[in-house]
Amino acid sequence: MNKFKYICLILVTTFVMGVAFPVGKIGMLYATPFFLMGIRFVLAGGLLALLVAKKPRPRGGRQWLKSAVIGLSQSAGVMGCAYYSMHWITSSESSIITCTNPLIVIILGTILTGAKYRGRQWLGVAVGFVGVAMTFGLQMNFQIGTLIGFAGAVCFAAATLLIKRWGAEFDMTVLAAYQMLAGGIVLLLLSAFTEHAYFRFTGASVLVVLWLVILGSIVQFSLWFYLLRNGDPAKTSAFLFLVPLFGVLSSWLLLGEQIAWYVSAGGAFICLGIFLVNWEGSSREAANLAKHPSGV
């Protein structure tokens, strides 16, 4: 994949992820969180499964289990923890915590897969996270919601590594479909046991669901899985630092929320962090990387 195509796809994907925050906030005016997310992923997974029906499905119990595990981590784990954490913390704080995923990817990748990353990449992740925190004005309180949100970030990182490890076994759109179905079913079960589920049918609520299903799920997950399969998971995940920034900008446009000065400063740190994680350095350093693709 050439760099221009890669950058375009990652910008589209992170933009859609960011817009999902204010759209989801609007949707929660008409439905309970788990129920809304469950509807979103069951409809999206079912529709995408129909669209890719002619492509090879998972073969055997092991592949079906792998797609279900990814769904439990990516759809149910991430979104379940993110939305449930909002009982105690704000959506901004939840998004900040979720976007620590790139740092956790590098940590887990180092521990579990033996991958090696340069100090500059570690610094880039740290700088990017500082930028995310600045975007929301450094207003975070440590409490039970923080732990739940962090659990979602761990689920996100685990799913990222699992997709990279197992993704070659699947067609990416097929995997995206069935993991959303698995995650959506789990979220609906959570809704049945933890909340008094409801959904108010209005023109606005239907538009929200359509947006979440088509753009926020089918397009987003198909592109995200494709990027993870065809690129370095740590470098790709570094761009998730753009998600809260896009979330703030879209919240300003859709909800009329004000943008403070620190958003611009945070955006600069985010861009610097992404540059540090993805910069290959000098030609000599790039040659060394070619000899040792996991890092030096």
Question: Keyphrases for this structure?
Answer:
13 helices; single chain; mainly alpha; disordered C terminus; 296 residues
Number of helices: 13
Considering DSSP H and I runs of 4 or more, what fraction of the residues is helical?
Answer: over 70%
Helix-strand pattern: HHHHHHHHHHHHH
Q: In this structure, how is the largest beta sheet organized?
A: none
How many DSSP-defined strands? 0
Rg from Cα: 19 Å
The dominant shape is globular
What oligomeric assembly is this protein in? Answer: single chain
Strand content: under 5%
What's the rounded overall pLDDT mean?
Answer: 81
Main location: membrane
Membrane topology: Multi-pass membrane protein
Domain EamA: 5-136, 144-278
Subcellular location: Endomembrane system
Secondary-structure blueprint of this entry?
Blueprint: H1 3-27, H2 33-51, H3 60-84, H4 91-98, H5 101-113, H6 119-135, H7 144-166, H8 172-194, H9 203-230, H10 233-238, H11 242-255, H12 261-278, H13 283-291
Describe this structure in words.
Keywords: Membrane, Transmembrane, Transmembrane helix. By secondary structure, the protein is mainly alpha-helical. The protein contains 13 helices and no strands. It starts with a helix and ends in a 5-residue tail after the last helix. Residues 281-296 have low confidence and may be disordered.
